[in-house]
Design goal:
Layout (H helix, E strand, L loop, with lengths): L2 E2 L2 E2 H26 L20 E7 L4 E7 L12 H8 L29 E7 L4 E7 L12 H8 L1
Antiparallel strand pairs: 1-2, 3-4, 5-6
Length: 160
Amino acid sequence: MQKSNGINVKTAILLGALFCAFILVLGFSLSKTAGAPANKDCLLPKVVGSCRAAIPRFYYNSNSGKCEEFTYGGCDGNANNFQTEEECKKACHAACLYLTAGYPANEGCLLPMKVGPCRAAWPSYYYNSKSEKCEEFTYGGCDANANNFQTEEECKKACL
């Protein structure tokens, strides 16, 4: 196992992830009390809308942990809809991503497996940072985190 200044690298990653989670929770609480929009908007699903325009936009995909392009219809969207990739990243990417440079580029790969409270039974994959492998689990269908992939290949591409 690699060590950096006497600290186990996995321990450093875990501490960084815990710090990030604390900052994000604190940030959500502060943004609610200040009346500013919370980044929880980034967890909303992609909504194309009911109109028929073809407007290129970006949304934060909480499964991949990345801002991705989609075609917006022009109406009936939600707050997870950005004109540029840069706007999306600024609003949705945790600054903590950069604390783990040299480790999985997708900060979601460091999150624990999350089945969620719903009762669906969808085969999914997550990156297990202890075994350093993508492993299968049964996803409940809602309230996923960014460490949730439809296929083992998607998991490997994002996390290995």
